[in-house]
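Table 4 source record.
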Amino acid sequence: MIRLTEVTKRFGAITAVDRLSLQVEQGEIFGLVGPDG
């Protein structure tokens, strides 16, 4: 299992990710696709 809790990522004044929480269980497949594919 992978668990992220309230993750925030900033680049200077730009907040790219704000308080992201997710959990991926064993055997699950997860993909995160942004605007550039």
